[in-house]
User: Fold this.
Amino acid sequence: MSTATDAPGGAPLLELRGIGKDFGSVIALEGISTAVRAGQVTCVLGDNGAGKSTLIKVLSGVHRPTRGELLLDGEPVDFGAPRDALDAGIATVYQDLAMIPLMSIWRNFFLGSEPTTGWGPFRRFDRATAKEVTRRELAAMGIDIRDPDQPVGTLSGGERQSVAIARAVHFGARVLILDEPTSALGVKQAAVVLRYIAQARDQGLGVVFITHNPHHAHPVGDRFLLLNRGRSMGDFAKGEVTREQLTEMMAGGDELTRLAEELGRPGGA
Amino acid sequence: MVKPELGSLIGAVVILGFFSAQSDVFRSLAGVANWLDVASVLGIMAVAVALLMIGGHFDLSAGVMTGTTALTVGIVAVELQQNIWVAIAAALVLALGIGAFNGWLVTRTGLPSFIITLGTFLMLQGLNLGLTKLFTGTVIVRGIADAPGYHSAELVLASTIDVFGQPFRVAVLWWLLVTAVASWVLLRTRFGNWVFATGGDEVASRNVGVPAQRTTIVLFMTTATAAWLVGSITAVRLTSVQANTGTGQELIYIVAAVIGGCLLTGGFGSAIGAALGALIFGMTQQGIVYLNWDADWFYFFLGAMLLLAVLTNRLVRRYAEAARR
Assistant:
């Protein structure tokens, strides 16, 4: 892994400046700014419909932003397709769509970047290498897979996320975008995934961790970007905000207090 | 990982055993040559259709396209008086065009390939009849054997090879070659990995950089190429082509692919399985004839095989997604 040359004061790996995205007349994102640094975790927090998915798609090259600038190592970039973002070292692990359940682990691991041997019309998928590297990389992340030939569909949710993270790390990702990796998981499985996030961070990757759970975000995050209805509610460094404040902002503090009163009335009466 | 073709292999062995025990014609060399011939032409198509199904799509125009290509060979060779190789090349260009059109329309619109290829199926059916009538005044193209270059074409596409004194159709070799190449591509190349991925989950594969649209278009062009091969074999072997050739075969190809372990939902299946599905089809069709049974039983039997295969395939899918939470 080539190490990050940028000191905390230098240009971030990835920077967003006033990003906005429209779908027809619908404004999905407006004025989003934050930074992703090497060896740090930037958490993007927001409720359903806050614009988290749209933001991921802008970062991973699925959508072009309508407004604003995306900077990679301080240079403006323009991704026309997911492949462009991948080639720039931005890997995205999608919530549900990271893997093909009916395909084996090693086929999934190298999907889209298959190693080949041979020449001309006999160029073929180097299966031996693929299996070997898959086993090695998973072991390096501390993931114990019984058999790389088993279909991904037979793995648990946490294992699948972990395989996806290992894959991104192997392919030289510098920025790792994780879309709600813990949302569908139980407490233990979520803890496993959070540990892999920390591990990726320690290897010098810039991690973008998308979640609606401040309890998952706060322990591992270095920066927190809060989204609400496509707009930024703030972009905080770790020291600037406590877990309680995050929870309150996420829940829409006042709304929750009012809801508690409303629901409490019949029982209290 | 469960092998998709396992069920069809067991089925083929059981059926081979059953008919061999019942009929000595069936197990004679002449009998074997006969049912292999039926299986071969069907098998070439079933294998290509299986690749497409693994890639997540159907091609209902595959059957009628064997007619379109055969008629093109006939019309260009006889009515336009060209060398038969020129006619065969023209049919290939046409087939690739139709396949690319199917694939382009499916990827472009995102509509189910079922309905798009139903459209091209009907259009081709009309064109086959209309153009044949326009060129020949009848619904049949005759006299392909008189075209220049016919003998070399016959050697490649419609000759026989003696094995222990029994002539076998060369189409059987084409079938084996197509199956071997398809299986190799599917299991051993990057493209094969993309086929499984595109059929398994198109959005996910695109997200990791698989050119899913290109894969789909190439797969449609592959079934079209297979249809061209079968059409050329048909035209050269029969030396005359009916305008309705191939119509109705498209579902048989899909049946053979499903018996061979292909899931209707895509992402799983095998080329060897589809070839075995075609073999089951050929053995049963000829076996019933040799036993002097009423041919109606053939369809009953085929339907039962299909249901059995679909139920087995469902279990496979359940297993593969067992731990999905």
